[in-house]
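G., the chain you wanted modeled:
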Amino acid sequence: MIHSTLSQLPSSCENPLQVCELDTIHLTSHLVTTEINDIVNEVCGIEDMAISSMYKGANWLRYKFVSAGDFRFTLYPNSMHTDLDFYVFSSKGDCNSLTNIRCMLSGSSDNPRCMGTTGLSDVSMDTYEYAGCDYFDDNYVASINVSPGDILYLAIYNFSENDTDYRIVHDGSARLTCDTNSPRASAKIYPNPSAGKLKITGYNLQSSSVGIEIYGNNGQVHLRRSVNLDEIIDISELPSGVFILKIHQDGQLIKSQRIINVK
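Predicted structure as tokens:
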């Protein structure tokens, strides 16, 4: 296995990962040591929280919709003993206009039955799950119906004992767009299939350095590091097979592509 050399830091509402397509995104969630703020009090029943603490320790994602439809996602941590909680906010487009509309707090560090996979489901009737682990908790809340122009923010927290890798799988009929006026950043991965060597060419990127992550089909991280464009990337230690390569820069996912390693 190739060891990871790049650690993904928590983001913030002001600097979220903009999600442009209903794709699968692989993230690292760091252990949260702060409380959650009073934005979610009314819906989730949390009391006496400091508003500044909502911006520490989370992975923040931003979604802007260009068509009506439903929006769903599922969080798949590598360990089923992971306690990932999340909060979904509607917004007018900035962090000062957040309104909590979904939250999932049902995980419990001492009850593995209420941890693991969680998300938005089209079959759930709940819009929130309180903290703790009640008998009927299923770690899912209802999906969201959106209209063109709607903007959502998602904050994901890890209340387990350790940092954890996880993937978020998006689903639904609504379409997304990136909220930017600049040319869209893109990248090309070649050769593919590869005999152990890869290169990345970038277009409209902010710098010549990007972060890459390579995952197996089971979500296992085989490589996480920063590379320069046109640098030779050695993947000869990987076994033969199909992998997912993710390219990101400044918190934005640039490219997600299947690659084939041939020995």
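The longest strand covers residues 252-261.

Shout if anything looks off.
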